[in-house]
Request: fold
Amino acid sequence: MKTYTVPYGTSIIKFTLPPGMRGTVLTSKSVEPPDDVEAAIDETLNHPIDTPPLREMAKPGDRVCIVFTDITRSSPDHLLVGAMLRELEAVGVRDKDVTLLCGIGMHRPSTHAEKIIKLGQDVVKRYRVIDNEPQNPDVLVDLGLTPGGVPVSAHKAAVEADLLLATGLVEPHQYAGYSGGRKTMAIGAAGEAIIAHTHGPAFIDDPNTRLGRIRGNLFHEAITEAARRAGLDFILNVVLDDEKRVVCVRAGEPVETHRWLVEFARSIYEVEIPHQYDIAIGGVGFPKDANLYQASRAASYLFFAPTPVVKPGGFLIVPAPCQEGAGDGVGEQRFLRAMRDAPNVQAVLRDARKHSYPPGQQRAFVMAKVLEEARVVIVGSEYPEIVSACKMTPAATMEDALGLAARELGGKADTHHPLDVLVVPHALLTLPVVQDPHEEIARK
Reply:
């Protein structure tokens, strides 16, 4: 009997499928990583896309801000930020003129220990390292409205810098199509208003707001304009494989560099599947499965693929310890309250479409859309009562989750009518595509 493996925290869960189920494993395409990642980073900094090298852009006396990703992102910022700092030091930019801004968006502030994990102890001791404060008007600069009516604001450390840089991770993203590029700055270092607007029902209900889709994507257009207004000059971004190894790194002008990396990311992350499945099992792993807010992305990513991966009424199963419960940040707690306090998922949707909601609560809207069509089971949560409060189903083990799915979907213990199960060990880094030529054209 075949054994399947998916991540669970910093470990793994192994399981077998019961009789009457037929499994298929889906992973991203394999790409050989560079032999020396640090050398690859230095090379791309020396030959950036559509900009001069960083050493030619910076000069002594410049105030420089580098926006880097928070602990919920696997971007290797200790390598990326470290490389940019060496470039700045080489041309005489003083340590005191550099600000390292953690792009937390509406997540909780990063801890000192997390800053060290992201940047390294020496960098944290040597440079000014701060968090974004999206609800503090004293540190935000109003940058007006985009042509689409999106209110733009950003942290003054970013806006007032003479040179604004950002790191990032290019991977499938539910709203932006693909993350990275301008998003680290435009959302991570933004005020609450733009986060609220771009995560609101008008954006999320739009059919072009889907994983992998760039063309016509309102979110993508908004963050591109926001980053332009903030003055983002230069990005250094990576693409990771399923093992979180850097397989591609590029630097340069934000729009063209991101476009180049998206094309590379598509080539490994987007994997064709022949049809929809009865059950999909999505692995997450640390750090994303530390709380329900983040771990539930596995279910929504599989649902909001260009075509939902499961059939209507199907099961989405996500192993996740959720040791932080729903999550400690402002946004995470808003998600919890919205899910917990509503009598059902239809009420969550009605309320969101009738009234504006604050950032973070969009995850409740998204998950309500998923739960309207599919069953979401969270396996191994340390807080099953929170899973239940959020209208999802807790299960102690994979065996329990699969048994529940078998009973409710009516699987037969024979080979003639098995339930089709898609196992996606890295659901945030693998984008299953039920191939349709029209969809392929629209996504790009």
